[in-house]
Write a structure and sequence with these properties.
Distance between the termini: 48 Å
Strand order of the largest sheet: 7-6-10-4-3-13-16-15
CATH topology of the largest domain: Neutral Protease, domain 2
CATH class of the largest domain: Mainly Alpha
Mean pLDDT: 90
Radius of gyration: 31 Å
Structural class: alpha+beta
Shape: elongated
């Protein structure tokens, strides 16, 4: 899902020619980062959600099936509904079964296995259904609730207008399901299947999850029946009702046709028929990279709504706009978010970070890769526009924090991009597929992602997840390259971090050296604040580019090249157990070390041709001087011992 404006990020709106697709599209629109900007609008829609909703509840039952019937009338009148749920008891439900339903509704009646039972509404949302019969663990019950009214201060049910018509639609993520039907309101389970029946005036049509079973007019009303036969968590159910027109696009997933059902406003049909076709190549790409579209047995779809963003309701995405990246982002959720759903709102990056990155991957693989570097650069700029913030959500009562576009979306996506750099392409995509297969139609969290990537790559990735998921900030690098007498370069890398939660980031740092009309790239393993390496590019270096292909989240990086040749040079600096002095001409006549107090001392050494290597083992960490006297030159070198 998407919301919030990315102010630090510049937007590039470009109309593309049809040749950029694999078929003719006359008005393909690309707006870089619209996938983040408008999916993250979820937080704006639900900004009034009370903070108490994030509590973890013990429901003690599972909902296996729900048959929900809603009388929507003329869309602006009170709603009447009936929810029939097949539930299975998992622990004691005495003295009652709890559900949630907005207090704006009145429960007219409730039945368990056909017997009328008492219902008490408590607080804003709690619904307690009493039963006089003891129910054993494992027992299956049929629960029926009839209700009517309109939700108070709704964060999930919206009535708007377009052109001259009304539209009523739901947006339940994360805590809004209770605003239009009674049930659970968390991430504890997925219902096996759902039937939803809608009664409206004949003028209206209803878009929803699954396959359309029936649509007919009887007794002055239109009755629409949808059935969804895949496991689904409550917030991914939705409906939208207005005077839709519909049409079908056809995509391919693993060689199988997938029908894309589009429900759009009549006044926008001509334009949107060209926009929705953008889904076709993206469906094929994601299927090639991550496996068959998970709901190929039913459909994919778009329903136009009055909203700035998109919401990935399972098999029927609700769209307020049809930019290319939003289409790609919401489709990506059907692998990451719907097929496998985050097991906690703390780990929402598993939904939004993956969806954002998959949209980025579409720029890498489509359009001849033209937009890929722009996408990377904009997201790095956006993430590093502030010094702190973790991908992991510490406060799940704050909906704005859950759907923070900089952290849950952009940083989550770039962390995946870095993980790909660390483990390599083959391991990365294999791990993604293994993760999806292992948790198909279920839930998973950061722990499961980490375990999967470790199993595939054979690497211990604890440091990576500690730094980039739970830690805050990003690194900045100062790279100093000093030419040695033999033409090699002493490369000194110093790292600072933007937030104290991470002393230094361990990562492979790519450096690209340029000079004499050529270039070469080295990857330096950075595992401390300061790292020194000796490199032999084979040419006179005139510049160095840090992270040339933008694999890393970093900012404020600087590189300095020193090509002046001195008769004597000391390296590496900072130094560990050894430090070397190289020289030209005659060997030094005398040398000595001194510490910050001025005390002079000598160290053991090894003499080589035109160099002396000193043993620094046992010296305390700190700043020292090495004074060297040569027949025609006297020099004093300052260095750091770590």
């Amino acid at each position: 899902m998407q919301v919030a404006t990315l102010k630090p990020v510049q937007h590039f709106v470009i109309l593309l020619l049809s040749a950029m697709f694999f078929y003719s599209i006359t008005h393909a629109q690309v707006t870089l980062n619209s996938g983040i900007e408008h999916c993250a609008l979820k937080s704006a829609q639900t900004r009034s959600a009370p903070k108490a909703v994030a509590q973890i509840r013990k429901w003690n039952y599972n909902v296996n099936f729900m048959d929900l019937e809603l009388w929507l009338n003329d869309l602006s009148a009170p709603i009447r509904g009936k929810a029939v749920c097949n539930i299975q008891v998992t622990a004691s439900v005495e003295p009652g079964i709890y559900m949630e339903l907005n207090r704006g509704y009145t429960v007219d009646s409730a039945f368990i296995n056909g017997e009328r039972v008492e219902v008490v509404q408590e607080g804003k949302f709690d619904l307690k259904i009493f039963s006089q019969i003891h129910h054993e663990t494992g027992e299956r019950l049929k629960l029926e609730i009839c209700f009517s009214g309109w939700p108070e201060n709704s964060t999930a049910l919206f009535l708007h207008e377009h052109d001259t018509s009304q539209i009523l639609f739901s947006l339940s993520e994360p805590y809004g399901c209770r605003d239009w039907y009674p049930g659970k309101n968390d991430l504890t389970e997925k219902m096996d299947s759902v039937v939803m029946r809608f009664h409206t005036l004949p003028y209206y049509r209803v878009a929803s999850n699954g396959l359309l079973q029936a649509e007919y007019i009887m007794n002055g009303e239109r009755i629409t029946v949808w059935k969804h036969n895949y496991p689904v968590t409550p917030y991914l159910l939705g409906f939208a009702a207005t005077n839709y027109v519909s049409y079908v696009d056809t995509a391919s997933s693993a060689g199988m046709p997938v029908y894309i059902h589009n429900y759009v406003y009549p006044e926008n049909e001509t334009l949107l028929r060209t926009r929705t076709k953008q889904t076709v190549p993206v469906m094929k790409l994601f299927s090639d990279l991550f496996g068959m579209y998970p709901f190929a047995g039913e459909k994919y779809g778009h329903a136009q709504i009055e909203w700035g963003g998109g919401m990935e309701h399972q098999t029927m995405t609700f769209m307020g706009r049809f930019d290319y990246e939003i289409i790609a982002h919401e489709l990506a959720h059907h692998w990451f978010g719907n097929y496998v759903t985050t097991s906690s709102w703390h780990d929402i990056w598993l939904n939004e970070g993956f969806a954002t990155y998959l949209a980025g991957l579409s720029y890498e693989h489509l359009f001849d890769g033209y937009y890929w570097p722009y996408w990377k650069a904009q997201n790095i700029e956006y993430v590093t526009s502030r010094p702190g913030g973790s991908v992991y959500v510490t406060d799940t009562t704050d909906v704005n924090r859950i759907f923070d576009p900089r952290l849950s979306y952009a940083k989550g996506a770039l962390v995946l991009h870095m993980l790909r750099w660390v483990v390599g392409d083959e391991a990365f995509f294999k791990a993604c597929r293994n993760f999806l297969n292992a948790h198909a139609h279920g839930f998973a969290g950061t722990t499961e992602v980490k375990e999967t990537f470790e199993n595939v790559s054979g690497m211990n990735l604890s440091y990576f997840f500690d730094d980039w998921i739970y830690g805050e900030g990003f690194p900045s690098f100062q790279v100093n390259c000093e030419r040695l007498i033999n033409g090699d370069y002493n490369v000194d890398i110093q790292q600072t971090t933007s937030h104290a939660s991470v002393p230094y980031f361990k990562l492979p740092l790519p450096l690209q050296f340029f000079g004499n009309g050529t270039d070469t790239t080295y990857v330096i393993e950075v595992d401390s604040r300061t790292v020194t390496a000796r490199l032999a590019p084979g040419f006179l270096v005139d510049s160095v580019k840090i992270d040339p292909e933008m694999w890393l989240i970093s900012a404020n990086n600087k590189a300095l090249v020193i090509n002046e040749e001195h008769p004597m040079q000391l390296y590496p600096n900072p130094a560990g157990d050894h430090i070397s002095l190289s020289y030209t001409g005659n060997p030094p006549l005398e040398w000595y070390f001194s510490d910050s107090s001025g005390r002079r001392f000598q160290r053991g050494f090894t003499l080589k041709e035109r160099s002396i290597t000193f043993n620094l083992r046992g010296m305390a960490a700190g700043i020292y001087l090495l004074s060297v006297i040569q027949s025609n030159d006297n020099r004093m070198f300052k260095f750091v011992k770590y």
